[in-house]
Amino acid sequence: MKWQRQVLTRYVWIYSVLIWLAVSFYIVEVTSKGSVLFTLTALGLTTAYILGVGIWTWFRKNKKQLQQIDDIMYDLEQLHDALS
User: How many CA atoms does the CB half-sphere of 54 hold within 13 Å?
Assistant: First the structure.
């Protein structure tokens, strides 16, 4: 349970940053023949999209999953104390 909580709180953000880096490098490579304004606009839109999805996921999905994990951990601790 602690591992699952750590994945939700830490590694999802690391994964998001790595995806952003990969997409950013790809955009720079693809738009290298275009204008600088086009490249910066594409990077800005991509960054806004990834941030929006990350924030939406955090407030909608991750908080609910973290609460469920905390409830399960509490129940398991109560069960462990009752058996001891």
Answer: 18
Q: Name the residue among 71, 72, 53 with its Cα closest to residue 61.
A: 53
Closest CA to 6 of 79, 84, 69: 69
pLDDT, tens digit, for every residue of 8-58?
Answer: 667 778 888 999 999 999 999 999 999 999 999 999 999 999 999 888 877
Q: Which residues of 13-41 are buried (b: 16+ CB within 10 A; e: fewer)?
A: eeeeeeebeebbeebeeebeeeeeeebee
Alpha carbon 15 to chain centroid distance? Answer: 6
User: pTM of the predicted model, to two decimals?
Assistant: 0.64
Burial of 69 (0-12, 13-18, 19+ CB in 10 A): middle
Q: How many CB atoms lie within 10 A of CB 72?
A: 12
Q: What gap in Å lies between CA 36 and CA 25, rounded to an integer?
A: 14
